[in-house]
């Protein structure tokens, strides 16, 4: 049929098949049939479905989660490298800051311990955010196709993408926490150890969700990397480690309170040293020094924990909304 209806055959025969069809009885009958079918029969009703999707939201979420689980499990270059990087960083920091957690007699000892926490948050957090962006970019291409086919809602996909990260980051935080906590010789109490794991876990969570969010609001991971890098610079400046909150000019101090890394550093330090009564070489206790120099209070740790959880939920919510609203597909 394709060979017979080519323009070369029309030129050889001296005819135009399109004109022949338009002047034929078949064309007239088809037009009449179309007009007839466009008129609804008496008593008929418009086609209606009770919901847009064939399955409930929870069923869509479970299917998307199952799909994402297999996608992550087969993506060894992403999961294995992330765990390998975490283990290497933990061993490197553990040997570099060996036994620093048990030293509490000098100001420099506290600064060294803070430096280990600050560096860990910066290294692991930025690595998590940067590594997730290409993954979301690839998964989003598949999502566009399946969304157009009406397979599931965008929110079900977004929540599945968020939930699938939870166990991986838990293993990552536990691996880092156990290695570093033991090598740096922090105080072995159940409360302090669990606080350390808690703050590391939700810090890695909100960094990962932040990387996903920046990817969802940008056309590709190159633009997402540029935007996120700008935020890392601002967060790094207002963590409270380079310049303590008490020494930040009052007109810039609001940046400290909206900096996620500042809350993480606050929680890690105050949960480990905020209630320590050891006397430093200048005659004041560790608790008094942290309160005077950094403005850290141990009774504020519960609020800090709630804010850290809030940052993770906020970035996850913004990722879900952005996936639903923005479409960067090019046809």
Automatic annotation (TrEMBL):
InterPro entries the UniProt entry points to: ABC2_TM
Keyword field: Membrane, Transmembrane, Transmembrane helix, Transport
Subcellular location: Membrane
Domain (ABC-2 type transporter transmembrane) ranges: 60-273
Main location: membrane
Chain ranges passing through the membrane: 80-98, 118-136, 156-181, 193-217, 223-243, 255-274, 300-321
Species whose genome carries this gene: Gossypium barbadense
Top-level taxonomic group: Eukaryota
GO molecular function, one term: ABC-type transporter activity
Pfam (any one): ABC2_membrane
UniProt-recorded name of the protein: ABC-2 type transporter transmembrane domain-containing protein
A cellular component term, taken from the record's GO annotations: plasma membrane
Membrane topology recorded in Swiss-Prot or TrEMBL: Multi-pass membrane protein
